[in-house]
Amino acid sequence: SARVFSALAAGGVNVIAIAQGSSELNISFVVEGGQTAEAARRVHAAFQLSKIGGGRSPEAPRTDVVLLGFGRVGRALADQLAARNGGSRVRVVAALDRSGYVFDPRGLSRQRLLRLAQGKDQGALLAALGGRKAGAAEALAFIASHAVSRPTLVDVTAEETADLLHLALGQGFDLVLANKKPLAGSGQSYQALLAAAAAAGRRIRYEATVGAGLPIIDTHLKLVESGDRVLRIDGCVSGTLGYVLSSVSEGKPFSGAVGEAVDKGYAEPDPREDLSGRDAARKGLILARLLGYAGSPPAAEDLVPPALRRVPLPDFLRRISSLDEEWRSRVARAAARGHVLRYVVSATSRGVRAHLAEVPADSPIGALRGTRNLVSFTTRRYRAEPLVITGPGAGAQVTAAGILNDIQYLAAT
Amino acid sequence: SARVFSALAAGGVNVIAIAQGSSELNISFVVEGGQTAEAARRVHAAFQLSKIGGGRSPEAPRTDVVLLGFGRVGRALADQLAARNGGSRVRVVAALDRSGYVFDPRGLSRQRLLRLAQGKDQGALLAALGGRKAGAAEALAFIASHAVSRPTLVDVTAEETADLLHLALGQGFDLVLANKKPLAGSGQSYQALLAAAAAAGRRIRYEATVGAGLPIIDTHLKLVESGDRVLRIDGCVSGTLGYVLSSVSEGKPFSGAVGEAVDKGYAEPDPREDLSGRDAARKGLILARLLGYAGSPPAAEDLVPPALRRVPLPDFLRRISSLDEEWRSRVARAAARGHVLRYVVSATSRGVRAHLAEVPADSPIGALRGTRNLVSFTTRRYRAEPLVITGPGAGAQVTAAGILNDIQYLAAT
Asked: Helix A36-53 to helix A2-10 angle, to the nearest 10 degrees?
């Protein structure tokens, strides 16, 4: 009976009267009319869990993950979860795309996820891969109604998913985002998302949006939880821009550095997406909003001159070497002062900048090489000397690890 | 009634039969004889909590902290907790030293803690400061028996406290350590402490033992939780040795660098304690044990030559300049190869080294200046490029913050 009443209590269901035989084989209780559905769901869930989880205590329920998007990161995450071999309380029960969804309340097997991934690689949508055709609202409602335990929606798309996230919060999902866009729109849309989560009693985590698996958002949270005040966060949060600028500072022509970044897969096929600084600025905005910044997204400094921003990609790639001489002299001017060029985002509660900066060559940012990210926290307690985290800030495996840490945090608390 | 049964369920108490009137003013239930005490304690605690916490849900119990030791760090912690102004579920209910204890189940006020701190500063023991005279076992048993919610013992001493920690685990305390010694003894004593915690169903956290408030142990935990495998941890974990060696590498005489470290309060009054590398080696050992190392403490490389290790402090300080010439030529030999000297600890599952190392001047460790710490994680996923955390690794405020994060982790999970 402990499990029954614990489940009811966790659901806020108040028991008015109870009758139980000393055989312990049956129990009856009375609840208010409005709480009947919740009570039934809670008790049902508690005992379904006990069946699947092998007699776990009701304090350790499973966390059921619904994947929104299923690209490289989603697959790495599904693999990392599957590799835990049942030792985990977390499993993927559904995947969702714009066509529909696949759902199995017992968890999607690794094989099933792999086949879905292969199908998606060939351009198919989930509705055509054995899934059910449905709009997102319908899909979420269906999944949520099927006794899903601690449902968590993981957004690994790079799309404008705010509407869908609002729906998910309303259906009782916690959210884990690797997708920056829902957090990097207008101040109003950001506040609306947080307010919707608060109203629904749900939580949002997004470690993987900045620095992939590096513990950036988590470190901020820990600083705040311990009563520190974070004054500013500065960083190099674009591996592509880091690679290009450290190559250029070492004497490589700009065009060659950009070409290498594309060849090595660091940059998008159209490298102007990275060179625009927009992605770095989004990360800076997410950090500034952690510090209380309530304003609009910043205008990022674009490393592509206006004349080359809208020409077709082949034209851009042909003409990019025309920029080499200007970059060479910029680098030389900085070097004469003992400086190097880096693309830096700086976030405070008052705003965020994303810009090309000259920094001392022997400073922590100046000493960065290649695609490594760096994030520096200046706080009331870490004021003279900041707390700095550096490491690779991209890659499917480490991004998935950042997401997994968020899921586990939600599962544990 | 939800609260009653939730409390019982959380205590693993099984209810055999229940009778409740529809007035909801009284409720009776039957439990097994052996569970009577636990049931009474649980129900009592649940309603006492509701009185103190103002109707909080039974899922958010208070965490009651007992401070073992009350020096600079203990006071900073008490201040940080008090500064949270009741917004926190954590409070200090007792302080303990070798003379006895002070205890107030409603929480010790900031004023009371301040007066205790002043008394301790003047050399008094707690038994003489309005406390109760008692041995540690008696004190812990008394405190544990007085309806303490989620009791947590925080060890901020620098003493051999293993016996007392075992007692506390037996009395139901979770442990938070800033004290390295109980974790840095023989492999057997370390394993015994972990085994005692497991047997008692209690937890041990010790973020502040390495890097003070820097998120070192927590980052390791997150890497492991996400399924990564940490292959090695390298670091500069002594602010004093970092200060001395970066000064020496910049051309300062060894004796002058050591003198400055003492004057600035970085080093102990007898700087040989720091120069011995013993404290750095303890931190390295704690990191190696995280990686599965089961062996003995390492022999640290001592920067003080044998002839000066046992002479009285004034003799040592007079003769230290005799070492300057040897250090000057060491630094020059390293510089000729583009290297600088640093005191590095390296931890793997197979062992731990604590030694003076030559590292490239433009490497992350070579670029460290002053007292900053650096800890570098090389893992299966962060293999070519490690995950690196740097920042100040000492100081009462940041050490207390590391402890507070541990307490909050225990309170939240």
From this structure: 130
